[in-house]
Fold this sequence. Notes:
Elements: E1 2-3, H1 7-21, H2 25-42, E2 51-55, H3 59-73, E3 78-82, H4 92-99, E4 107-109, E5 120-124, H5 139-147, E6 151-155, E7 176-180, H6 193-196, E8 198-202, H7 208-211, E9 218-220, E10 244-248, H8 255-267, E11 272-276, H9 282-288, E12 293-295, E13 307-310, H10 319-328, E14 334-336, H11 337-345, E15 358-360, H12 363-370, H13 376-390, E16 393-396, E17 402-404, E18 410-412, H14 425-438, H15 443-465, H16 471-484
Parallel strand pairs: 2-3, 2-5, 3-4, 5-6, 6-7, 7-8, 9-18, 10-11, 10-13, 11-12, 13-14, 14-15, 15-16
Antiparallel strand pairs: 1-9, 16-17, 17-18
Helix pairs in contact: 2-3, 3-4, 8-14, 8-16, 11-12, 14-15, 14-16, 15-16
Amino acid sequence: MLKILSGDQVKELDSAHIQKEGISSHELMERAALSFIRWWESMVFSKALPVFVFCGAGNNGGDGFAIARLLFKGGWNVQVFRCFEEGNTLSPDAQKNLDWIPEGVPNHPWNEFDLSNEGVLIDAFLGVGLKGPIRNSAFPIIECINSFPGIKISIDLPSGLLADSPSNGPVVEADFTVTFAFPKLALLFPENAPFTGKIVLAEIGINEPIYEVFPSPYFFIQEKDILPRHRVFGQFSHKGDFGKIALLAGSKGKMGAAILSSKAALRTGSGLVTAFVPESERGIIQSAVPEVMCEFEESPDWNRFDALGVGPGLGLDKKDLLQKTLKGFTKPMILDADAITLLASNREMISLIPKNSILTPHLGELERLIGKSSDHLDRLNRVKEFCLQWQLNVLIKGAYSVISLTDGRQLFNSSGTPYMATAGAGDVLTGILTSYLGQGYSPENALICGVYHHGKAGELAGNQYRRSTIASDILEKIGETYLLLNVL
Ligand SMILES: NC(=O)C1=CN([C@@H]2O[C@H](COP(=O)(O)OP(=O)(O)OC[C@H]3O[C@@H](n4cnc5c(N)ncnc54)[C@H](OP(=O)(O)O)[C@@H]3O)[C@@H](O)[C@H]2O)[C@@H](O)CC1
Ligand SMILES: Nc1ncnc2c1ncn2[C@@H]1O[C@H](COP(=O)(O)OP(=O)(O)O)[C@@H](O)[C@H]1O
Ligand SMILES: [K+]
């Protein structure tokens, strides 16, 4: 997993890198610019489009000057716009790259930019070095960039956005943000989506051991993290090895939730799935999913199951049932949807949840549980406190779902698509997570693998159906994610 460092730590990263690998900050900047160019080439923009690079006086501007040089060499029609006063001192690497701008690249002060231009604007004005509230002198520059009607690409961060805390001033509204080494924390906050556009991660070859010296609770999950966390099963494995799980889900009119979670559990390899549903509704699930078994007792011996998932479509009139279930099951369980809403209004039950269990609220359910948050950073901090206090894991669902663990670490998922914002997508996830717990995954690994596969299945469904995607399509794509990630 990629560690997400703070803006201040990025400065120190330079020196750690120089010490360990003997690579100068200037070479690191060149790598960043080359990495940007690799992404640019993959975008196959038309060469007829002129490119305008707005550069600040710090290293973000330095990246911009280097990118302008490389684009010019590649045959692009490039112009540079300086976002600083004549006579300002530039960072040494920015100055070096400014000096290296080829003669054929026009270089103007920013206020000479003609807003009737069409083309691509590269925003290399401010990056992680932005400190405090943005100065008045920067307002018109950001306003000018935002008035440009063409494609806007921000380097590292949209200018004006603070790397890891809420921003109040004006911010560039980019179509793409190409961020180096790891996504800066603020890029992953839902309230910043209007500024970031699509986030692209550009690798600059910083080896993971270099990150070790930097403390950070935040991590970004990547595809390569998934396979090693999956369990490997042998040739003689039988269905008992793949877990016996129970799902307490569904109610009159909401049996679809029980069907989706049961199917998802089976699709992710659960050996035996038993759905506890109202007896009157059994015909619906048994004809929809013949592979699932049904039981109807309210207080069964829950501990005969390896894992238990509670909540999808359960109904808000099931307080007593939830209480009995929390008392009856002693291993980590999954609590979702109505189970979370019931816990929020009956807080005395929170202490009954087995330690290390997983709660999977969407933002509405989360607010009921921990109160209103002023912004995403505040939300992350409140959730962390909740996890530490109760020794529970919480998944904050949404774009870049956050896995908040009992030890305070918070892991951002990188798979998923807005096409997953559809009824029942969360029920599918509950089935997947319960399935992995039942197969003996730790809660942490169940979450990392489950949330990633779910998001990937959503992407595959979204690629095929766009906004016509429904939760059943996500289910049907789970198998393909196993092939894609080479999970046996
Ligand atoms: N290290 C790495 O690993 C790598 C880092 N890389 C790149 O370096 C970037 C960081 O560069 P950085 O640290 O030089 O800061 P940067 O974002 O250019 O900002 C400084 C400028 O902002 C200005 N400014 C500050 N506060 C302000 C305010 N409130 N309102 C207005 N202005 C304000 C400040 O002005 P000053 O205070 O100096 O007058 C100065 O001009 C990083 O984002 C990435 O792109 C890559 O090359 C890859 C490797
Ligand atoms: N914009 C988005 N980008 C990525 N994933 C999303 C987005 N919106 C929703 N999702 C995912 O879809 C699922 C929706 O779950 P939930 O809100 O519980 O739906 P439901 O209650 O209808 O089943 C979550 O896993 C969430 O992370
Ligand atoms: K920028």
